[in-house]
């Protein structure tokens, strides 16, 4: 290397605060993102707590994103560490700035997000739906909705969709909430406190297991892909490894089995199931809800997730007994 180039590299390194040696190395000589995280032994992943992504079950963390990330990390030979930003805006910011290796949070791929994030291959498709309360007037189009009757999470893909639709519906106005998550908005619709919100079809499918009055009025979008997001800079080795992993589990059926495991039951309630479920909501859930809410304050786990898990385990029967002799609501 000519002495002039060496001196320039040293000077640039001092100005940027970077180790000068790293500037001498050609890109092919520098360790890749995958090699660096393997050396560290840790994959840092931003996610969100929800029935469709990550939640804590009786035997530990579960959820589609949790299971996918854990399997992917195991293949890399590292441990996965999840972090949970306060809101979707913070999650996207952390990912775009490289504070995490990737985001696995049920993120919709949108043109706006592509400007500051790199996305991997999709693993699921959803549609965005306008949600209303059964028993109230069902709107047939956005033109039937009064200004500010829709509430959405600020910075979400749903707000992006409403901005896009506003060009064709100038009277469309909504409230963007920063202090709540989607499931709190859905609960507000269930209680009649919020007129409408917007949810991905998979989230509505899961929420409807608990909130019996939630219904989709109509779709606001065509099917849109969900994918992992990566920082927009650095080499592409981690995204390529993730794409290869997703392609493999799509071929061998693992992805289909996971989707069936987490979503297959949600749409298969027969008449008797629905009748019993609605009766249990009326008769059993009100007595148990204070305990679920207390557990949320103690653990940080959303009470609705705890209630959903408890229903799967015992149908909210405190006297339930498993074949192995375990008793109680959560068994």
Tell me what the structure shows:
The structure is a single chain. With 331 residues, the protein is of the alpha/beta class. The protein has three domains: 32-125 and 226-263, Periplasmic binding protein-like II (D-Maltodextrin-Binding Protein, domain 2, 3-Layer(aba) Sandwich); 128-221, Periplasmic binding protein-like II (D-Maltodextrin-Binding Protein, domain 2, 3-Layer(aba) Sandwich); 271-314, no CATH class. It is built from 14 helices and 14 strands. It is globular, with a radius of gyration of 23 Å. The termini are far apart. Mean pLDDT is 87; it is low at 4-25.
Any key phrases for this structure?
single chain, 331 residues, alpha/beta, D-Maltodextrin-Binding Protein, domain 2, five-stranded mixed sheet, 14 helices, globular
Based on the coordinates given, report the CATH architecture of the largest domain: 3-Layer(aba) Sandwich
Shape: globular
Rg result? 23 Å
Helix content: 40-55%
Question: H/E element string?
Answer: HHHEEEHEHEHEEEEHEHEHEEEHHHHH
- Average of pLDDT: 87
Count of folded domains: 3
Strand content: 15-25%
User: What is the count of DSSP helices, taking H or I runs of 4+ residues?
Assistant: 14
Largest sheet: 5 strands, mixed
CATH topology title of the largest domain: D-Maltodextrin-Binding Protein, domain 2
Topology:
Blueprint: H1 3-16, H2 20-24, H3 33-40, E1 42-46, E2 55-57, E3 60-62, H4 64-76, E4 79-83, H5 88-96, E5 102-103, H6 111-114, E6 118-119, E7 124-126, E8 128-133, E9 150-153, H7 157-166, E10 174-177, H8 182-191, E11 196-200, H9 201-207, E12 214-219, E13 224-226, E14 229-230, H10 237-251, H11 254-263, H12 271-283, H13 285-299, H14 303-314
Parallel strand pairs: 1-4, 1-5, 9-10, 9-11
Antiparallel strand pairs: 2-3, 6-14, 7-13, 8-11, 8-12
Helix pairs in contact: 13-14
């Amino acid at each position: 290397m000519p002495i002039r180039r060496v001196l320039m590299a040293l000077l640039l390194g001092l100005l940027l605060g970077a180790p000068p040696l790293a500037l001498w190395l050609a890109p092919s000589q520098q360790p890749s993102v995958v090699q660096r995280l393997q050396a560290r032994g840790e994959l840092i992943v931003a996610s969100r707590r929800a029935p469709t992504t990550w939640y804590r079950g009786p035997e530990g963390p579960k959820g589609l994103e949790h299971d996918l990330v854990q399997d992917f990390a195991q293949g890399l030979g590292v441990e996965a560490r999840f972090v949970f930003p306060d809101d979707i805006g913070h999650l996207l910011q952390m990912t775009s700035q490289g504070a995490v290796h990737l985001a696995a949070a049920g993120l919709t791929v949108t043109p706006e997000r592509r400007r500051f994030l790199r996305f991997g291959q999709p693993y699921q498709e959803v549609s965005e739906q306008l949600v209303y309360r059964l028993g109230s007037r069902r709107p047939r189009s956005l033109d039937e909705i009064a200004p500010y009757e829709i509430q959405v999470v600020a910075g979400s893909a749903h707000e992006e969709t409403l901005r896009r639709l506003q060009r064709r519906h100038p009277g469309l106005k909504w409230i963007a909430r920063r202090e709540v998550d989607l499931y709190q908005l859905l609960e507000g619709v269930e209680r009649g406190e919020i007129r409408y919100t917007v949810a991905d079809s998979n989230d509505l499918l899961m929420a409807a297991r608990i909130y019996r009055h939630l219904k989709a009025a109509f779709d606001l979008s065509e099917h849109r892909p969900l994918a992992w997001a990566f920082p927009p800079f650095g080499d592409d080795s981690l995204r390529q490894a993730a794409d290869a992993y997703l392609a493999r589990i799509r071929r061998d059926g693992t992805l289909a089995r996971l989707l069936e495991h987490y979503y297959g039951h949600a749409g298969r309630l027969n008449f008797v199931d629905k009748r019993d479920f609605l009766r249990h909501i009326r008769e059993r859930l009100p007595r148990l809800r204070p305990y679920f809410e207390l557990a949320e304050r103690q653990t940080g786990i959303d009470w609705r997730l705890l209630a959903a898990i408890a229903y799967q385990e015992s149908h909210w029967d405190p006297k339930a007994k498993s074949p192995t002799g375990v008793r109680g609501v959560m068994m």
